[in-house]
Amino acid sequence: MTVGQMGMKHPSLAAMVEAIKVSISREGMHRRFTGTAVAFMRRCAEFVMKQKASGMIRLQSKILQHFKRILIFDSTSWDISPALKNVLPGYGGGASDANCKVQTCYEYNGGELMFFEITAGTNPDNAYTSELTSHLRQGDLILFDLGYFCTKTLRDINRIGAYFLCRFFIGTALLDPITLMPIDLLQTLRKMKGNSYQMNVLMGSQYRGLQVVCRLVYLRVPQEIANERRRKMRKAMQKRKGREPSAYHMQMAGWTLMVTNAPEEWLPTEMMRPLYSLRWQIELLFKQIKSVLCIHRSNTGKENRLLCEIYGKLIMAVMIHRIHADINIRLWNTQRRELSMEKFYKRIQERAFIILQLLLVSLQKATAYLQDEIPRLIKNCLKSRQRSRRSTLETIDRGKLKAASVILDAA
To answer: CA dist 335 to 59, 60, 107, 275, 314, Å?
Structure first.
């Protein structure tokens, strides 16, 4: 539908658009990006995230039902104008002088984006780790990658009565919880004959009081995956330090080591890898925010304008994702079907200009349009069923390991 066609259906809309063009010049619009505007956009983002969909339901799955919420933490970053290097600094050198990072929490069971926090690209994820526990409740399960690994945080999660599932950071102290003797990981692995093994360990420094009792799980990876890991390890070490990786780390590449404090009856060994692969859902979200909403594209060198643009796109991400989550959960619970996040974002993007024009008329007209349009979108956005390649949720629901194992190991 063209702008002219929209104007014919909504005569007042065309007049309003023309009035906006006349009354606000480019320079005038630029002057409106102030600190007050940033504060307003931040409050709007916080307001949108606090709103709950009417009758919001949760995913029904035997494994997921043990945990009140499944929280996935991760971050995404991108380079910005070098003019902002004093506000949001980058690493410089071969990297960008200015870089923006967004810390994110995604609640998988209810499909909610719980928070965003904008930081400088130089802020490492492990520096943000101490903030994670402030978002937890008793009975939650938290998933994150090695960038957030910290034994103090894992100890605090355990004290709250929440649960964690993450990759083990090689080099962290391990003791036998009964004898308090150090555990030699490599010697333990050499004695193993099967593809998986688990043991209870006391993890963390005994001198700093950061120890936590948990399960350490060893999962053997296919030979081709192990070789690819070693290739990447050699390349990274040569680039950063100009030397070969140690023999110890090369041998450990043949295994995936994971830790959790969840009881085995809730989280069996064979389901740890599939459940952990849920973490890639937030990577899919980041992909849509960048490729569809273009959050990483900005030509401005002004802090206030950049932040207003980012908050505006994050607000849109929350709204689209909440609609997607509500539909996806209902489809899964009733039909065991899933709605493609990527397709749904793209279909909304195609209709974004129409939605914007209707919003200029009234919220009711935009809402009515979406209510009519979304049922048609669902048919085009359903995930196809493939017996040979099940989705992560199908794998968890069926209790099978193979599909999710490939997703995790390939990373």
So the answer is: 12, 11, 22, 21, 31
CA dist 97 → 93, 120, 193, 299 (Å): 8, 11, 50, 15
Q: What is the pLDDT of residues 190-233, one digit of tens each?
A: 888 888 888 999 998 877 677 899 999 988 889 999 999 999 99
CB-based contacts of 238, cutoff 8 Å, min separation 6: 244
**CB-based contact 401:270 (threshold 8 Å):** yes
Q: What angle do CA 287, 289, 395 make, to 5 degrees?
A: 45
Measured between alpha carbons, how far is 230 from 150 in angstroms, rounded to an integer? 25
Q: Where do the H-state alpha helices sit in 336-387? A: 341-350, 352-361, 363-381
Q: Which of 360, 370, 350, 353 is nearest to 14 (CA)?
A: 360
Residue 255: strand pairing partners: 220
| C-alpha of 147 from chain center | 13
Q: Please identify which residue in the block is written with the tokens 């085995």.
A: 264
Token couple for 135: 């978002």
- C-alpha angle 231/390/107, rounded to 5°? 85
In the predicted model, residues of the chain with pLDDT beneath 70 are: 1-24, 52-56, 93-94, 208, 399-411
- pTM confidence score: 0.84
Sign of torsion, CA 78 83 89 92?
positive
| Spatial distance between the Cα atoms of 350 and 292, rounded to a whole number of angstroms | 10
* C-alpha dist (Å) from residue 259 to 264, 277, 290, 333: 12, 14, 31, 30
Phi and psi angles of residue 321, each rounded to the nearest 5 degrees, phi first: -65, -35
Single-letter amino acid code for the residue at 301? G
Instruction: In whole angstroms, give the CA distance from residue 121 to residue 100.
Output: 5
